[in-house]
Specification:
The chain is globular. Strands 1, 2, 3, 4, 5, 6, 7, 8, 9, 10, 11, 12 and 13 form a 13-stranded mixed β-sheet that branches. By secondary structure, it is of the alpha+beta class. Strand 4, helix 3 and strand 5 form a beta-alpha-beta unit. It folds into 2 domains: 114 residues, Gcn5-related N-acetyltransferase (GNAT) (Aminopeptidase); 157 residues, 3-Layer(aba) Sandwich (Aminopeptidase), CATH 3.40.630.30. The protein has 8 helices and 13 strands. Helix 5 crosses helix 6 and helix 7 packs parallel to helix 8. It binds coenzyme A (COA). Coenzyme A binds next to helix 1, strand 4, helix 3 and helix 4.
């Protein structure tokens, strides 16, 4: 099969939304799980909207040359320190025909041209995507367990963690400190993403920060809730105690929902606290890098919206 690569345009959003919906749901259905998306193929057009808001022109399509159908899509996010790979989808009609690899190779070319490492988060249960990334030179770096909590309509009624009083809502004045903290603890910087969440034009985002006794930032955590995603992250904090306080605050934003969040599997105290709040595991993910990487010195809560481990 022959594919042409081109950038996504606005007219492609309905087809790309359907592609994301069918690709993910079909893959999970044929591997023994229920659907990941439940609100119809129009809901997944939100990926196009959000990613185009943040990174216009950074979605590549592989188009079947003979039919003109879109066989695959992949979003990517060039940042000052790295390039991250967003959601990658091949239509089930085209699984195993090289469309995924073609798109990856093009994004690798972009990152290499800019001299930047690539980062992504991939499911440890999906050997197809694991192999695609692994063959392209990605190395798994950290293990995360996906957890969720069913939050009652009246909110989470657990004892607030010890540092809860140091948490407040994120404001536009926090953007530089948030970006600097992530650079210090994780080695990556992406202030525009945080400005976008805090601006919150669509009303989907929520953000919290935690301060030390002197008012310096010790952590931050964002979340999204719309018809395509209910995720907590991205977030970074100095300690597991800071992270527990941030998660408690963000979980309270999701009364009546069951948000999913990725927790580093070596954060045993934090995970123990989350089990005591009723958290359950639903998947395992790896953060992966291609190129330069150094271990984080804080707690990282990655996400798929937008992606960066
Ligand atoms: C994962 C996915 C993107 C792969 O795309 P694809 O177009 O089917 O993959 P390709 O045909 O380009 O294959 C890529 C490479 O991985 C290899 N590969 C793929 N699955 C494999 C498996 N299970 N075991 C061994 N090798 C595998 C292929 O042989 C190929 O390597 P090669 O070219 O060196 O021979 C696609 O299956 C998909 O969209 N799945 C559902 C959605 C999803 O999982 N998205 C990723 C997470 S968001």
């Amino acid at each position: 099969m022959n594919f042409t690569i081109r950038a996504m345009e606005k007219a492609d959003w309905p087809e790309v939304g359907e592609l994301i919906y069918v690709s993910i749901n079909y893959w999970y259905h044929t591997h023994g799980s229920g659907p990941k998306f439940n609100n119809g193929p129009e809901s997944t057009q939100l990926f196009c909207k959000i990613y185009e808001d943040i990174d216009p022109g950074c979605c590549l399509l592989a188009v079947n040359e003979s039919s003109g159908s879109i066989a695959a899509s992949c979003f990517y996010h060039p940042r000052e320190t790295h390039v991250s790979i967003g959601i990658m989808n091949v239509h089930p009609n085209y699984f195993g025909h090289g469309a995924g690899k073609l798109l990856m190779n093009e994004i690798i070319r972009v990152a290499d041209e800019q001299g930047k490492p690539l980062r992504l988060v991939s499911s440890a249960m999906n050997l197809d995507s694991f192999t695609l990334y692994n063959r392209c030179g990605f190395v798994p770096r950290q293990v995360f367990q996906d957890m969720y909590v069913e939050i009652p309509e009246g909110g989470l009624s657990v004892e607030p963690p010890s540092l809860a009083s140091r948490v407040r809502s994120a404001s536009p004045d926090d953007v530089d400190a948030i970006a600097d903290l992530e650079k210090e603890l994780v080695g990556i910087r992406r202030p525009d993403d945080y400005a976008y969440f805090i601006e919150n034009q669509d009303g989907w985002w929520s953000g919290s920060v935690i301060e030390d006794a002197k008012g310096n930032l010790d952590g931050f955590l964002f979340s999204v809730a719309n018809s395509a995603s209910n995720l907590i992250g991205p977030g970074v904090a100095r300690t597991e105690e800071d992270t527990a306080a941030l998660l408690h605050a963000q979980l309270q934003q999701h009364a009546g929902r069951s948000p999913v969040f990725l927790v580093p599997s070596d954060c045993c105290d934090l995970i123990g606290t989350l089990y005591s709040w009723g958290a359950r595991n639903c998947e395992i993910h790896f953060s992966q890098t291609r190129g330069e990487w150094s271990p984080p010195t804080g707690v990282v809560l990655p996400t798929f919206m937008p992606e960066t481990g």
